[in-house]
Amino acid sequence: MADPKGFMTTPRQEWPRRPVEERVRDWDEVYVPRALLPIISKQADRCMDCGVPFCHDACPLGNLIPEWNDLVSREDWRAASDRLHATNNFPEFTGRLCPAPCEAGCVLAINQPAVTIKNVECAIADRAWAEGFTPARPPERLSGRTVAVIGSGPTGLAAAQQLTRAGHTVAVYEKDDRIGGLMRYGIPEFKMAKRHLERRIEQMRAEGTKFRTSTTVGRDVGAVELRGRYDAVVIATGATAWRELSVPGRELEGIQQAMEYLPLANRVCEGDLEVSPLSAAGRHVVIVGGGDTGADCLGTAVREGAASVTQLDIYAQPGAERDEDTEPWPTYPKIYRLSAAHEEARDLRTAPAADADARLFAASTLHFAGDDSGHVRSLHLVEVDELRRPLPGTGRTLPVDLVLLALGFSGPDQEDGLIRQLGLQLAPRGTLARDDGFATNVPGVFAAGDAARGQSLIVWAIAEGRAVAAAVDRYLTGSSQLPAPVAPRDRPMRV
Q1: Most buried in the list 310, 352, 394, 455, measured by CB within 10 Å?
Q2: What would the pLDDT profile of 122-175 be if each residue is shown by its tens digit?
């Protein structure tokens, strides 16, 4: 702890965002370039050397947060990078995309604003790349064992990198034309520029990981055939089976799933398309779902030039402070948070009828209505109580040309044949069943990430990737020195 009084003398200061009017005119990241490094050492000074750092338990990766905070406060960036990368393969991803449960568990957060852990992490990662502290680390010798990883999201990439560095020959199979999974086509460019993803992929190639794109296992290559080619298989396909909204009028044109909409916008940024065929430009948009995917749709629709954008959240508007009775420290509280997309919608007044920013809280969709051509034109909703029961006299109608369903995901997609061909067992909620060692009912086949855990955070995805790599390494060699930060049945801290 470089400054023992830093948490008392230095106020919390976050990475500043670019002005709303500027950033909504492009797809660049929302933060002011180069504005983080001048403030981050003093922010790291706020880490109070609490003795029992609950941020460790709040983070499934077990990041050594007090250690790299201290190193950043002393501006020892190389050592800070070493400590950060000791537990996290991709800190530039989590530093931009993770909602930072570690900050909710910060001891300082008991009665003060938490340390800006997420910003410190991102600063270390970016500085490490700028200074060349992240060279490729190919193995000294090969084991002669081969592993196929199915899926190239954060779980698949983390597992592949760990297993490659352990000396195994690893091939990653991805159904899309580019590597990255939802980080590639689900996360908008303004949240994380894809250059960060490309750097890691090139690093992994230099280490020896092989990539097979445009290959759907179960369709383009048989799952049983693939299993026969490799000594072990890791299934990390994610939870891509989206939830539906079964209300009258769902069949109307103009009602799309969020993951039908967001990839097209990302393909525009990649240069594959000039204009998205589902562009929100000039249209009245309603997003059904109050989570992060809905916020991603919101920011995307604003940048595409929507006439209006409203987001429906079935939950009541949370308060600004933690409810100590129902969500005591150090759990991650449900409080009112203003994402960059919500800040943009608020300042631009994209939804004049909304309760706050672009959101209508405690709102449940009753049905859709369309015009004579079968296109959606209105959404009928009602307010609900905490048990989601309709409140009499609260019905209202919103004009809409484009509805985006962002209701989350229930488990892995079963249409590609992978699950059926291998005969994989499913858990009651539709995810892949596995034992305490990440193994499925099929010998040599392991499951990790959202496909087995269910929809979760990127930090849990990376932790699962690291842990399943240790399990596979043990299966192949009889023992493993790879870290296993989580077990299959571990869950976030909750009441």
Answers
A1: 310
A2: 999 999 999 999 999 999 999 999 999 999 999 999 999 999 999 999 999 999
Whether this prediction's pTM lies above 0.90 is answered by yes
Domain spanning 244-407, CATH class: alpha beta
Specify whether the CB–CB gap between 420 and 126 falls below 8 A. Answer: no
Scan for tokens 């890691």, then name that residue.
200
**9-67: pLDDT as tens digits:** 999 999 999 999 999 999 999 999 999 999 999 999 999 888 899 999 999 999 999 99
How many whole angstroms separate alpha carbon 60 and alpha carbon 234? 20
433 φ/ψ sector (left φ>0, alpha ψ -120 to 50, else beta): beta
> Using CB atoms within 10 A of its CB, is residue 265 exposed (0-12), middle (13-18) or buried (19+)?
buried
Count Cα neighbours of 420 within 13 Å in the Cβ-side half-sphere. 7
Which residue is listed with tokens 């087995």? 452
Domain ranges (residues) in the chain: 5-131, 146-240+410-477, 244-407
Fold category of 146-240+410-477 in CATH: FAD/NAD(P)-binding domain (3.50.50)
